[in-house]
Design brief:
Layout (H helix, E strand, L loop, with lengths): L1 H12 L16 H7 L5 H18 L2 H24 L5 H22 L6 H13 L7 H25 L4 H6 L27 H9 L1 H13 L5 H24 L7 E2 L5 H6 L7 E2 L3 H27 L8 H25 L25 H24 L6 H19 L3 H5 L1
Antiparallel strand pairs: 1-2
Pfam family, one: Fungal_trans_2
InterPro entries: DHMBA_Reg_Transcription_Factor, Fun_TF
């Protein structure tokens, strides 16, 4: 069974044609590490846990799901043993295995529609803090550090979306938030300077988004002060600067990265879910996911700006700044909703590895590619879940109609991956 599931996982995610600017992070080096790993090693077992879970979600097989859980349980003591051996030469392999288990945590969180606890991401950060100075620079290490950095940024976005819902008093006492914050590594950012990378829109975005880490520290420190008004102006200016950098990124992407309005939307796609007759098409899912990450980050920054404006009302005496920020939030939320049909098409349930069963919208300059037909039914909902959850987790002032629509798409994701048709009835 392992000889079938692992190639299926690799072929359905890693080896599909993608935009040249897209990189798969640590997954890029996983096949070579896996092929060189011993059969019962921590890296091999961790890979099997993620591969079996992925294929279980694609096929609806409870047997594969239980097998994945067993591999996850077996991987934990093996990684502990490797850490106790304290062999620095294993750092890349250990970090890759930890990242795999962190991915498994995210899968389980999706299944239960919860925020992932990120226990293994914390472990990766602790390992980097303790051993990074001993490790020799290498191409795999740079790729892995970049993957850890990317996960940290994603976690901070999820964390702050939940955190911003709390009152100042709750933030001071940490009440009302069960998902603890992952600390930033001692050395930040982890990845080398951007000049060392090729001109990649995705890496440039991550470099810009990594500024949220320091903004989060400054904002939380302000919110715990007896008099936060003394710091509001500084935080507001920092947030505005980061927002300007994000907007600048959106103007620097290649033309084929820019979303295009669909010219044909099948009726079945409309029936499955389209908001206000809007649907944007992209060159591939990885590009669309990067855009939604951009929108998440900008929505988050807008809300930090709002909290500062509320604290320091003298900055907005006529309320125009607040109105402008709210308008930006709603525009970004609409753009996320407009990406949903591109990811999901008319899919309402798992296609169980049968390609060609899902219809998608398209534009004249954005045709539905064979890769999209093959990959989107398996991974489209995975790419969407964080953006949809973030639209739910924060009181963005979205119209009630939009809130209900987003809830319906959340239920649709659960039905697609975990065969829960009763969720569609609630949507």
């Amino acid at each position: 069974m392992e000889d079938t599931v692992v190639p299926l996982f690799f072929n359905s995610y890693l080896y599909l044609p993608k935009d040249p600017h897209i990189q798969n992070g640590y997954m890029e080096i996983l096949p070579s590490l896996y092929s060189n790993a011993e059969t019962d090693s921590y890296l091999s077992i961790s890979t099997l846990a993620v591969a079996f879970f992925s294929v279980a979600a694609w096929t609806g097989s409870e047997h594969l799901l239980r097998t994945s859980e067993r591999y996850f349980t077996r991987a934990l003591p093996k990684i502990r043993d490797a850490l106790q051996r304290n062999e620095d030469g294993e750092l890349d392999s250990i970090l890759t295995a930890i990242l795999l288990l962190s991915t498994y945590e995210e899968f389980v969180a999706i299944k239960h529609w919860e925020l992932p606890l990120k226990a293994h991401l914390r472990g990766a950060i602790a390992l980097i803090n303790s051993r990074r100075e001993k490790s020799l620079p290498s191409s795999p290490s740079s790729t892995i550090y970049n993957a850890v950095e990317s996960q940290i940024v994603r976690h901070i976005v999820q964390y702050l979306f939940a955190r911003l819902q709390l009152t100042i008093e709750q933030i001071k006492t940490t009440r009302g938030l069960d998902n603890p914050m992952v600390p930033a590594p001692k050395l930040w950012p982890l990845s080398p300077s951007q000049s060392d990378f090729p001109s990649s829109p995705r890496l440039l975005f991550q470099s810009t988004a990594s500024q949220l880490v320091n903004l989060r520290h400054s904002w939380e420190k302000m919110m715990t002060q007896p008099d936060p008004t003394a710091h509001a102006t500084t935080i507001l200016n920092k947030a505005a600067a980061i927002d300007n950098n994000l907007v600048s990124w959106s103007h620097r992407v290649p033309q084929h990265w820019v979303p295009v309005a669909a010219s044909l939307i099948p009726q079945s796609v409309r029936n499955a879910g389209i908001y206000r007759n809007r649907c944007d098409c992209y060159s591939d899912m990885w590009i669309a996911a990067t855009w939604n990450n951009y929108r998440d980050c900008r929505i988050l920054v807008q809300n930090i700006k709002l909290s500062c404006l509320h604290i320091q009302s003298s900055h907005d005496p006529d309320g125009q700044s607040t109105q402008a920020v709210n308008a930006t939030i709603h525009k970004l939320a609409d753009d996320i909703c407009a990406s949903v049909p591109f990811f999901l098409g008319n899919q309402m349930e798992s296609v169980r590895m049968r390609p060609g069963l899902v219809d998608y919208p398209f534009a004249e300059t954005r045709p539905v590619t064979l890769t999209h037909k093959q990959a989107a039914p398996l991974m489209g909902a995975w790419f969407l879940f964080a953006a949809l959850r973030n639209l739910q987790n924060l009181d963005l002032g979205l119209p009630v109609e939009q809130q209900k629509w987003v809830q319906g798409q959340v239920n649709r994701v659960l039905a697609i991956y975990f065969q829960r048709p009763e969720m569609l009835l609630k949507g």
